[in-house]
Specification:
The protein has 391 residues and is of the alpha+beta class. Helix content is 41%, strand content 21%. Strand 7 and strand 8 form a beta hairpin.
Length: 391
């Protein structure tokens, strides 16, 4: 693949940090962040989603250890971490090294005698914006290790390793969506991801006169927070109650609306709301696919609005800032749809805006948001790109 200018600059930064010339061997990998067009919080319920890899990237490089130690270097933070290979343990909650240590722990379990190495990374994925910088980092690292040591893991295996690292070391009970989209993304396409079979259908996306635009609320979220993990526990609790009522369910994916209404009395109000949202969101993903195939962008946009208010009211993962950003778009003729995107509690909204009106929309949204919250609103256009690969 042809590398972008930013990716080349990140690669050069890593070479410069290691004092490696262009002629000296080094494994360098690029791994993208992701957006999710629709299908939020459905992945850990083995449902449907529509993610895509985007041109916001982490680039990492591995070289042989010059000091007989394994070291990890976060160039953007100007921080390093020396890894005790013989006893890899999670660091305090929120430490960036956990995403890498969780990957390395699994690799060393399978290959206990790896030679020492240094890994450095840098990127341009906005942190805290809900674009899955953590999954991009995990995928970058496992792909680099796979290439450097010739481990011959498939992409599917590497996704599994990254996903487990997020659970075991970062302590985030996420589904497979982020790691899958980052690893398997396709240039110019979104993926209709089935999180039960871990397979995906590639979707051509043509918005016609519209374009996607992310609006960053500046509210930093933490997927490791108790609020995110609690949503999964609430869904699991609902599942247990329904299974005890002799419903043969492997996940909420197997539940239909009539069964939910019939068994509502077995669930708490919160459990019922969570189930109601998940079932509706899975349906919206399928409707979104059909709308996009027909070029019905206004219809697709309405599904985004429905998704947002389901997340806000039934799933309770929005916040005042995100609701405000969506509300301000609803009267605008230039916007077909908008919704919060990602795990929630902050981050970005996804907006479908008339290309000719992008500047006007940004000016209006920035002004209203600044007046309401006293914060600057940032905007990120993006393109769909290929997933994790050698640079």
């Amino acid at each position: 693949m042809q590398s972008s200018g930013e990716e080349i600059a990140l690669s050069r930064r890593i070479r410069s940090y290691f004092s490696i010339s262009n002629e000296e061997p080094i494994v360098i990998v690029r791994s993208p962040g992701r957006v999710n067009l629709i299908g939020e919080h459905t992945d850990y319920n083995l449902g449907l989603a529509m993610p895509a890899a985007i041109d916001k990237t982490i680039v990492g490089g591995i070289i042989p250890s010059p000091n007989n130690k394994t070291e990890l270097h976060a160039l953007d933070l100007n921080e390093s971490f020396t890894v005790p290979i013989e006893s890899i343990q999670p660091q305090p909650k929120g430490h960036w090294a956990n995403y890498l240590l969780g990957v390395l722990s699994q690799i060393t379990e399978q290959q206990p005698n790896l030679e020492q190495f240094h890994f450095a990374f840098s990127g341009n994925i906005p942190i805290g914006a809900g674009l899955s910088s953590s999954a991009a980092l995990e995928n970058c690292f496992v792909f680099a290790l796979n290439e450097y040591f010739g481990l011959k893991h498939s992409r599917e295996n590497m996704i599994s390793i990254s996903h487990k690292a997020e659970h075991d070391f970062a302590k985030v009970e996420c589904g497979i969506l982020d790691q899958y989209a980052s690893m398997m993304g396709r240039k110019g396409k979104a993926l209709l991801l089935d999180c039960q079979s871990n397979t995906a259908e590639e979707l051509e996306i043509d918005l016609g006169t519209y374009t996607f635009l992310l609006a960053d609320s500046g509210v930093t979220h933490s997927l490791a927070s108790s609020l995110y993990n609690r949503r999964k526990l609430e869904c699991q609790s609902a599942m247990s109650s329904l299974q005890e009522a002799d419903l043969e369910l492997k996940s909420l994916r197997d539940l239909d609306t009539s069964e939910l209404e019939e068994k509502q009395h077995l669930l708490s109000e919160i459990e019922y709301d969570r189930c109601k949202y998940v079932l509706a969101e899975n349906r919206r993903v399928l409707l979104a696919r059909e709308a996009l195939k027909r070029g019905a962008i206004t219809e697709f946009g309405e599904l985004l609005y429905e998704s947002h208010w389901g997340l806000s009211v039934n799933y309770e993962v929005s916040c005042d800032e995100m609701d405000f950003l969506v509300e301000l778009t609803e009267p605008l003729d230039s916007v077909a749809g908008a919704r919060m995107m990602g795990g929630g509690f902050g981050g970005c909204t996804l907006n479908v805006v008339q290309s000719a009106s992008l500047s006007d929309f940004q000016a209006v949204a920035s002004n209203l948001y600044k007046k309401r919250f006293g914060k600057e609103l940032k905007f990120y256009p993006f393109r769909f790109v290929n997933g994790t690969c050698l640079l």
